[in-house]
């Protein structure tokens, strides 16, 4: 198994290196530090290794950061993904699985969100790049018969998560007695999906194999918990398991943010015989245990 990451400084690299340290314990794992935007590097890696399945989870993430640094999204999410597609086409590989996002649904009023819903009105540049990835993948599947599967992830959380996401961001604020910026006064809902359920879903999709010509060699799934949780309730659970009260700074809805995410996962369940099962209470309990251990808290 070959991994590639540029270990950029979008957030604390020590967390990234600690994650990488876990992977390096496995004898069949090798790592290359580099960027997907470097086509020459990618081509050499594909030529030198017997690659049959590609799982592309790399991207410049985050809705709010896209307002500050749009160019990083163009380079990472569009140029980088185009390079992945080109290398997969030339190899050719058996199956490309790639990360999309629930952000592509924007502020669609229909709930739960289905993969058959229209997603042509993104409300952030990040969402626009993820929708573009889906269109690019479909085009390569149609023209070159490259099997591709896109995964619309719904607010993934758990141990080793990104520190700009709610779980770690809010937990850091709580233990340091710092205010949490709570948008739309906490009246937003997110379909929080625990990392173990995400991993199991991806693993089963790998085992299932690529989509066939019957679906134009291209498939999209929602990866969600199918249980939206109000942000205020999410914070209350963190307070409970960290045994500290949060300092809340209540603010109006921020540009680019959606009011609710809610995944229709019927198609995923039918195709891989699996439905995410981790409740928010169980997930927060597991997350906070890891968080306190990682931070060396009592």
From TrEMBL:
In this protein, which residues make up the domain named NAD(P)-binding? 17-286
Q: Name one GO molecular function term.
A: UDP-N-acetylglucosamine 4-epimerase activity
Presence of the UniProt keyword Transcription regulation in the record = no
What top-level class of enzyme does the UniProt entry assign?
A: isomerase
Top-level lineage group: Bacteria
Tell me the keywords, alphabetical order. Answer: Isomerase, NAD
Q: What is its EC number?
A: 5.1.3.7
What InterPro entries would the database entry show? NAD(P)-bd_dom, NAD(P)-bd_dom_sf
Protein name per the record: UDP-N-acetylglucosamine 4-epimerase
Q: Which organism is it from?
A: Neobacillus rhizosphaerae
State the gene name recorded for this protein: wbgU_1
């Amino acid at each position: 198994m070959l991994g590639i990451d540029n270990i950029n400084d979008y957030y604390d690299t020590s967390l990234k290196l600690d994650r990488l340290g876990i992977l390096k314990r496995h004898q069949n794992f090798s790592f290359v530090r580099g960027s997907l935007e470097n086509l020459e590097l990618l081509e050499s890696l594909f030529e030198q290794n017997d690659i049959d399945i590609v799982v592309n989870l790399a991207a410049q993430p985050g809705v709010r950061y896209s307002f500050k640094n749009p160019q990083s999204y163009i380079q990472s999410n569009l140029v980088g993904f185009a390079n992945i597609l080109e290398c997969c086409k030339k190899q050719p590989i058996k199956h490309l699985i790639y990360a999309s996002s629930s952000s592509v649904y924007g502020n669609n009023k229909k709930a739960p969100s289905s993969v058959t819903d229209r997603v042509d009105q993104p409300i952030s540049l990040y969402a626009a790049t993820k929708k573009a990835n889906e269109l690019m993948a479909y085009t390569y599947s149609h023209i070159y018969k490259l099997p591709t599967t896109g995964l619309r992830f719904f607010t993934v959380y758990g141990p080793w998560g990104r520190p700009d996401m709610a779980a770690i961001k809010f937990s850091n604020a709580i233990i340091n007695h710092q205010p949490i910026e709570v948008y739309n006064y906490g009246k937003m809902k997110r379909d929080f999906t625990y990392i173990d359920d995400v991993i199991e879903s991806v693993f089963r999709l790998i085992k299932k194999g690529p989509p066939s010509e019957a679906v134009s060699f291209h498939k999209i799934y929602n990866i969600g918990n199918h249980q939206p949780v109000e942000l205020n309730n999410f914070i209350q659970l963190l307070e409970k398991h960290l045994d500290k009260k949060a300092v809340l700074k209540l603010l109006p809805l921020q540009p680019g943010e959606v009011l609710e995410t809610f995944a229709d996962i019927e198609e995923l369940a039918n195709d891989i015989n699996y439905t995410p099962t981790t409740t928010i209470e169980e997930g927060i309990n597991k997350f906070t245990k890891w968080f306190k251990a990682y931070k060396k808290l009592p």
